[in-house]
Amino acid sequence: MGFSYNILVILGDCMEGYVMGNERYEQLLDYLDQKRDWVAARDLARYFGVSGRQIRSYVAAINRSSETQPLIDSSNKGYRLSRAPVPGRRRLSEDSLPILPAQRSEHIITALLRSPGGCNVFDLAESLFISVPTLENDLGKIRRDTAGYGLTLRRNRETVVLEGNERDKRRFLKECLFQGGWEKVRTEPHPFFTQDFNDSSVRASIKRIFSEHSVFVNDYALDDLLLHMFIVVQRVRSGCCIEEIPTCPSEPDSRYLYAIKDLSEYLQTTFSLSFGPLELHDLELVLSQNTSILDPSIITPQNLKQYVEQEYIEAARYIVEQVKEHYLVNGFSDDFFVKFTLHLKNLFIRSSKNLTAKNPLKDKIKWTYPLIHDISVFIADILDHRFGLHIDEDEIGYIAFHLCTCLYGMNQEPVTATFIYANYYDYHQKTVELLEKYFEGSLAVKFTVSIHDYIPTACHSDLIISTVGSRLPKPCIVINPFPLKQDFEQIRNQVEEISRLKKYAFFHQKFLQFFAPQCFICNRTDQNPQDLIRTMCRNAIDLGFARETFTQEVLRRERMSNTAFHEVAVPHAMSQHVNRSFISVSVNRPPVRWSESAPAVKLVLMIGVHQDDRRIFSRIFDFLVEILSAAGNVALLEKAASFEEFTGLIGEMAGNVSWD
After folding, report:
1. pLDDT tens-digit map of 434-459
2. Residue 340's domain is classified under what CATH number?
3. Does residue 174 belong to any structural domain of this protein?
4. How far is residue 175's CA from residue 223's CA, in Å, rounded to a whole number?
5. What is the pTM assigned to this prediction?
6. What is the span of the domain harbouring residue 133?
7. Do 532 and 652 sit in the same domain of this protein?
8. At what angle do helices 614-629 and 310-327 cross, to 10 degrees?
9. In the chain, how many domains are there?
10. Which of 324, 325, 292 is nearest to 308 (CA)?
11. pLDDT in tens, 169-212
12. Residue 160 bridge partners (DSSP)
């Protein structure tokens, strides 16, 4: 790295313990070294995505590391590396280092939680190397975030204080840590925590205690429990204990009592703590939220009633029937029904105690399996309207997890085959078994017939596979009586080609019919998602495609869980409110910020499905996702200036996309 390498050696361990700052200083020094000339402060600020004030803070911190000559020169021209740096250094305290923008919120929240009496805004701004107005902007966002947890961020002259009960503060902190990445918190320094919480050791001890008392926990729930323990240890150690009696007090299940006793003793002994009765009650609530005293491996459809009340079984059965009717899907196995019913019971119990389970996979499931996630939102709507149970995105994600076990690949229509053989001691049956096992899900042997009994008009299938080298209708593949590697490869290539052609035919025969030139919009306004949806719905209603109720139903679906994934949004209603099926398109310039957690949306494809087309809705949905998820496709489609250009690009993409 040339000249700047020597400077970094000089800086050495002066930035030890502050990884993010060290990285940014290295980047600044390296950038100045490459320029080897004066660089204006505004250019540096633009390059690093920070303010000019922060650039000055970085330079000041770097120069303070030298006991003699500054390492970076400054003038009215900007900044450059010193021509003759003198070796010398001194350690910078972590408190004197500037905080990067992405880290400010967690530092502010940490300061507020550690100071029950509040923080001085001027001292807080100075410690963060930002101006008071910048701090006020940060506090505004934190104020909005905390309001959803029953907390109030109150300003009294120069002091700002976070008011609320301890349970709500812990809930808020848990959400902040979860959103910031629990894995990162467990492995990297964090301003809120000391580093004596050995994750592996605590995890092993909890699992041992649960095993001794026959308490069952899955790995996702165990992670949630560890995060809670992490927070409890730090808060109690700081003297912040729960003092509020719960609004719905309950007696611990007797089967949990010994596990709670051993777990609390372990935590108090290991971390030198003392739990009061309300802390123990809170521990019982968390255990009931994340664990089960039922061993799911021994529960079957035959003995389900011995473990689960009839009301939950009936609720699960009703939900499954509604999904079958609405989405026209099957494949719900007995194993799925048992586990889904157990999950449903736990869901109702958690809700009765005002508890939720965090789900680290909720976004990944939503973006990877959007149709299954959509079915989960449909189930959430049933739970809300029929059973009065409102669930959040985390719980919707867990329902999707269950659905994936039986509905994954539900739209993968297998290629059908006729297997033709020369009969000899029924050895052909072994070959058919091998083929079905090898190509499970992608190939279905529809007919098995000897060469002498084969009648082409009676055996309609996509492909013929034969062990007899006779003249047969195409497409036909002749293989060895006992298939070799090259036989499997030959069949696979043919299956993939037939599957591609079938989907491409579906694209031209069905998919394109959903589009209409009148439903194509080049959106150049700075609308929010709700207003854009209203505009698109109004257009569809005016064209006679949708009914007046369509708008409120699309917005209701969006409120339950936004339909954005990657840089695309696919708003739609959960029930039919249209006169004909359609797909309305909005190409957004500039992109629309759909939600805080999703990227800005460049394309909106709003779907309206008529009753007569319900059977193909899932295929349409999956088809869109496959095209729009392919790398680079959204970037091409967002440049389309007309309906004809847009559908032309979609056609090209449908021909090129991999359908595996």
Report:
1. 999 999 888 999 999 999 999 999 99
2. 1.10.1790.10
3. no
4. 13
5. 0.71
6. 101-164
7. yes
8. 80
9. 6
10. 292
11. 998 988 888 776 655 555 555 555 555 667 788 899 999 999 99
12. 119, 155
